[in-house]
């Protein structure tokens, strides 16, 4: 693995970004890979950007290692997905450090309750659990977390 560069995503990368998103999501064991899932994510990527999401990629010499979606005005970390072959190599920490540079005072996020590996990682990274709510679109229980800069 060479030096990872975090940069804004380009529109021609939306399909590969959806692939990274799916592969990472599938690695949680919560859903199987499928053409339908990939199609849903391919449609969602440009839709999220149109709604004001800032979309970034972790670029490893032209290979997409991860994707990051932020809603800067809401201080919301919407999506952080690392390709399975890059998991455990601090790519997630690099993306979180990048997020904290852009949102230095506070960040909130939601994480699927069954994705224990992810929410435990956020807790180790200083995020505090606030509440659980059912996501109406998916029916999944989402854990809400918040991080605030220490005074």
How would the blueprint of this fold be written?
Layout: E1 5-8, H1 14-26, H2 35-50, E2 54-60, E3 63-71, E4 76-82, H3 91-102, E5 106-112, H4 116-124, E6 128-134, E7 141-148
Parallel strand pairs: 4-5
Antiparallel strand pairs: 1-2, 2-3, 3-4, 5-7, 6-7
Helix pairs in contact: 1-2
What does this structure look like?
With 151 residues, the protein is α+β, with helices and mostly antiparallel strands. It has a single domain, classed as Aminopeptidase (3-Layer(aba) Sandwich). It is 33% helix and 32% strand. It contains four helices and seven strands; from the N terminus they run βααβββαβαββ. Strands 1-2-3-4-5-7-6 form a seven-stranded mixed β-sheet. A hairpin with a 6-residue loop joins strand 6 (128-134) and strand 7. The mean pLDDT is 94.
Broad structural category: alpha+beta
Terminal-residue CA separation = 36 Å
- Mind summarizing the main beta sheet? 7 strands, mixed
Q: Which overall shape is indicated by the principal axes computed on the Cα atoms?
A: globular
The low-pLDDT segments are none
Give me the CATH architecture, please: 3-Layer(aba) Sandwich
Helix tally equals: 4
Look at the structure and name the CATH superfamily: Gcn5-related N-acetyltransferase (GNAT)
Radius of gyration, whole Å? 15 Å
The largest beta-sheet arranges its strands as 1-2-3-4-5-7-6
């Amino acid at each position: 693995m060479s030096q990872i560069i975090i940069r804004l995503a380009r529109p021609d990368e939306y399909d590969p970004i959806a692939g990274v998103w799916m592969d990472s999501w599938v690695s949680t064991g919560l859903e199987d890979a499928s053409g339908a899932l990939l199609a849903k994510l391919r449609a969602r990527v440009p839709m999220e950007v149109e709604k004001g999401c800032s979309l970034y990629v972790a670029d490893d010499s032209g290979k997409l290692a991860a994707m990051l979606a932020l809603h800067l005005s809401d201080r919301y970390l919407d999506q952080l997905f690392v390709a399975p072959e890059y998991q455990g190599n601090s790519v997630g920490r690099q993306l979180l450090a990048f997020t904290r540079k852009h949102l230095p005072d506070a960040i909130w996020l939601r994480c699927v309750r069954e994705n224990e590996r992810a929410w435990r990682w956020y807790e180790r990274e200083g995020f505090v659990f606030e509440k659980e709510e059912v996501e109406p679109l998916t029916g999944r229980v989402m854990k809400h977390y918040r991080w605030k800069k220490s005074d």
